[in-house]
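Raw record, unedited: Oxidoreductase
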Amino acid sequence: MPTDTTLPPLDPFAGVPDKRYEVKAADLLKPGTGGLLRWRRQATNAPIVQVEDAYITGTFDLRAADLNFLFRFERCRFEHPPDVREATLLGLVFRKCWLPGLKARNLRSRNDVRLIRSVVEVALGDHEVEETTTIQRGDDRERGMPNAAINFTDAVIDGSVVLTRTMISHPNGKAIQGDRLVVTGALLAYRMVAKGEVRLPGMRAGGNVNFSGATLDNPDGFAFNGNGLHIGGSLLCEVDSYGPPSERKRFSANGILYLPSATVDSDIVLREARLTVDQQGPVVVDAWKSGDPYLDPRPALVADRLKVDGNLELSDGLRAFGTLRMVNARIGGSLRLAGAEITMVRGQAAPYYDRALHLDGSSIGGDIEATNLRVPVGQLRLADVTVGGNFLAWNSMFLHSGRDAFSARRAKISGNLQLTDATLKGTLRLQGAEVGGSVNLFGTVLTEPGQRTSSSFSLDIRTARIGRDLVLTENKERPFLAEGGVNLDGAQIARRLDMNGAQLSSLPQHGIALDASDVAADEFILSPAEPPVGSVRLRRAHCGSLADNEAIWAASDGLELEDFRYDALKNGVALDDDDALDHRIVLLRKAMRGYRPGPYDQLAATLRAAGNEEHASTVALRKQQFRYEALAKGFKIFGPGVRAWSWLQRSMVGYGYRPVRALGWLLTLLVLGSLWFGLGTDSCAQDRSGRFAISGPRCLVNQQDTGLQWNPVIYTADLLVPIVDFGNKSRWYMHGTDNWVSAGFTASGWILATTIAAGVSRMLRRDS
């Protein structure tokens, strides 16, 4: 160190100082016996060697030295990188120093290694600096030779590594290389600035790795390479709040955070971080250029197979421009995305490579918290994800027009999926998902759905399994809106499908506002705020209770109700409310736009199960009426005959559902016939020629039937009842008008008997 103690403190960052501060590195060391080094000067008897305010020229070389000293340099500037490769030291400290590099491969330090408020800057184009700290080009490149400003490869630090407020610059190489670095304590890099790659693959740290407030800048590659590292504490890349609020410093990375196969025993925290990757820049890894559609060639974060025992915090103001990729990751706690913003450049050609969040195959032990998550451009992909808790995303915004904005195929969520007041442009796809609790989409707005050849739904929950409710309802004044319709085909809902106040539309090319075919639930609440624009499909769906309104039956393209079954109506038809029943039948007929027997049978069965047998029969009667009307339209020539036959059955016996009518017609005809034949007379009774046997006012056909007594009531009954013969109709002589009247009564009897038989057969088939 300088001998002139009157000199002002050295500013090592102001360039090459004058000669008065110069200390030759060779003069700091003198050879001793046995080849050991003996320090020329020590401030105290303590094992600390301290050098202050010195410009150290030459190479400070401690390579392979084994010294029980802690070396402390303060306000020093080095002409060449200090060399402590393979050395064993008590400790090493650089405070407010300027270094052109640090060679520390295989260093063994029994205490901390610290570079605090220092600058490590590789001099570009300095050919005298060895290859371990310079850029290597062309013939100068040696395979396997590290290229870093600070080289900690295979070093073992029994304390901590502290890089607080240090600036490390090697823009075209590696700022730090620490392959297989072992740190028994923590790695603390508060507000560190690194220009070049921070490379720590395989590192083992016993405590936290803290980059809070740090700036990592390597835009054409990895800003941080932590492939396979193991951290015994937490990985912290968040805001450094030390000092007044105006001096808060966010963590930022311009380049890829690369953490595949990393293991963190506690938490990973990137609150308020800034992650940026140039989406038009080069693809860093050759394997990512393969064209595989499941790759993300320009990610901001890669953490495939990551294992975190605690929480993963990507929240509270985090801004990422590039994919956050965590495929097949294992997170023991919660994944927090609340208040984050992730955006991409929209892909123009398939495969689009514009996923904002990619979590395929990952397992999260706790919740996924995505409240106020913003994705202005890009897709959230969570295929085959397992969530031990809830998925919570109130007030979120996912914008990916014309494509899948949120895709969670076959995801398994033990709790609830809560997407309240969310805004999505694109399709929300939950096909095959399993949710142990409820799927709540209160007030969620889905517009501009992804368009495919076969379908274009805003919400796709086909074949999903939901343990409680599926709620697609309004929230206060904000409706649930699905511009492209809702597809629930084959979904199984344990309790309730609630669409109260929903607004459903469809795209013109497919025209399906709601497809609930094969859906099963305890309760359907199908009461949208307005008639759906498009068709509503309820084929083979089944629910225990159905609550509806006029709007669902007024869908612009009608309803498909084949084999739609419901056990009860939540708002049933009262026994004395014929108008309500008539209104429901009108709605049902208009909705189907054609004759289909199944929906009428279902309504009748529901009414009958509720004890409303009379209204059930009314529905069945109207069904037969509509059936004959449909047949009459089909049989153009015989249509009038079909209509007449229908009228006869309806008026006489109500198609078998009004048997009292048959008795009424029978009694009416019996009275009319009795009056006609009883009050009338026959001219043959005045014929005394002996051609007829006369009994009272009527003549007998056979002379031998003189014992037969005339009874107009029995005679009329004999005419009306076919097949059965009471012994009257063929024994009395009728002619003229009486002959035609008797023939009419006989024909009426046959018609009445036929219609009764047809009605009874239908009743028997219905009961069976």
